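re: that chain from earlier
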Amino acid sequence: QVQLVESGGGLVQPGGSLRLSCAASGSIRSINAMGWYRQAPGKQRELVATITSGGVTDYADSVKGRFTISRDNAKNTGALQMSSLKPEDTAVYYCNAKITSIWYTRDYWGQGTQVTVSS
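^ sequence. v structure.
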């Protein structure tokens, strides 16, 4: 059994910062790409940022220069540091990882964590 668990969401004022964390656990052999997605009410889920196992990152244009994705391969964890937050960043944020377990390789999703940017 493999699980992804996010933490770190909450309410923050515009211009503030928040750090999301994602922890993978279970019978993991390796974690390939990791990513963060978000889904706002009434909208489709969208890609926010990705990071390869080698540390190559990519970001949605809407968050470039404000968000930073990172990972710790030794601890099977990932993080999304969000700064200069805007009301339009309000969404449920999901961690995603392509994980090779002792059985197979597949995508896993966390349960989601709410981020609300409001004054």
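The first strand starts at residue 2 and ends at 7.
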